[in-house]
């Protein structure tokens, strides 16, 4: 080793800097992170959700993210779809769950948190007469999709303190349909706003969230 080389190493040692080999590889101390979100949540039965998230860290563009789903009764996850990240690491895809479903995203060694998407049954409500006379019998009827034959459905009326159940009925089969039907007839004595409700996330109905119809108004007159 000549005097010039010795002088160079002495200067490096004085500065407290260790020499690096030309082919040295820096360790990756900032591994990528993967997120997942679902919108809307809850979602009405028959509609789609958007599953989106972000892969952060180095080289996050153009990566395939796999989406895994586990529908109720939550026994096993399966790969249902995939999405590719853009230059910013963002990705997005759609799904149409039919029951409450858990999702997570995975790319290489990265995995997102599990997101539970709740599915509300689609509930309709119509009145046989929206301007009945006082004490007239009015038929409340509609459908619930998907099929929930034999389940209980509540007719609720809005009061100053909120909605309160005033009648209950049982959902019936519609031949050749994937929906159930209901009807309940009773006398209406004064103006009111009503809705139909099938309770969800209960021991008797754990596969769906609570389903709510649009409210309907009865304008009672003499």
Helical coverage, percent range: under 10%
Radius of gyration (Å):
30 Å
CATH architecture of the largest domain: Sandwich
* Overall CATH class of the largest domain: Mainly Beta
Residue share in β-strands: over 45%
- The number of helices is 1
Low-pLDDT segments: 2-31
> How many strands?
21
The whole-number mean of residue pLDDT values reads: 88
Q: How does the major sheet shape up? A: 5 strands, antiparallel
Assign the CATH superfamily of the largest domain.
Immunoglobulins
Measured between the Cα atoms of the first and last residue, the distance is 113 Å
Task: Give the number of domains.
Answer: 2
Structural class: mainly beta
CATH fold topology of the largest domain: Immunoglobulin-like
- What's the multimeric state? single chain
Outline type: elongated
What string gives the helices and strands in order?
A: HEEEEEEEEEEEEEEEEEEEEE
Features:
1 helix; mainly beta; five-stranded antiparallel β-sheet; Immunoglobulin-like; 222 residues; elongated
Task: Describe the protein's architecture and organization.
- The chain has one helix at 3-15, and strands spanning 33-34, 37-39, 43-44, 49-56, 64-71, 78-84, 90-95, 101-107, 110-111, 115-117, 119-120, 122-123, 126-127, 136-145, 152-159, 162-170, 172-173, 180-188, 192-198, 211-212, 216-218.
- It is mostly beta strands and 222 residues long.
- It folds into 2 domains: 31-120, Sandwich (Immunoglobulin-like); 122-218, Immunoglobulins (Immunoglobulin-like, Sandwich).
- The strands form 5 sheets. Strands 5, 6, 8, 9 and 10 form a 5-stranded antiparallel β-sheet that branches.
């Amino acid at each position: 080793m000549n005097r010039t080389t010795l002088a160079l190493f002495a200067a490096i040692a004085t500065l407290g800097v260790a020499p690096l080999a030309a082919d040295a590889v820096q360790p990756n101390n900032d591994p990528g992170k993967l997120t997942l979100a679902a919108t809307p949540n809850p979602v009405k039965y028959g509609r789609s959700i958007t599953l989106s998230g972000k892969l952060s860290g180095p080289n996050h563009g153009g990566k395939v993210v796999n989406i895994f789903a586990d529908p109720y009764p939550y026994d096993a996850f399966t790969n249902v779809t995939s999405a590719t990240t853009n230059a910013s690491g963002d990705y997005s895809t759609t799904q149409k769950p039919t029951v409450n479903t858990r999702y997570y995203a995975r790319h290489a060694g990265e995995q997102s948190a599990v997101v539970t998407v709740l599915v509300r049954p689609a509930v309709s409500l119509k009145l046989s007469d929206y301007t009945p006379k006082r004490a007239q019998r009015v038929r409340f009827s509609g459908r619930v999709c998907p099929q929930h034959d034999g389940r209980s459905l509540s007719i609720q009326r809005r009061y100053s303190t909120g909605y309160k159940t005033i009648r209950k009925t049982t959902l019936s089969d519609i031949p050749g349909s994937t929906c159930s039907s209901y009807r309940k007839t009773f006398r209406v004595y004064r103006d009111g706003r009503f809705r139909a409700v099938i309770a969800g996330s209960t021991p008797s109905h754990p596969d769906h969230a609570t389903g709510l119809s649009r409210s309907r108004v009865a304008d009672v007159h003499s």
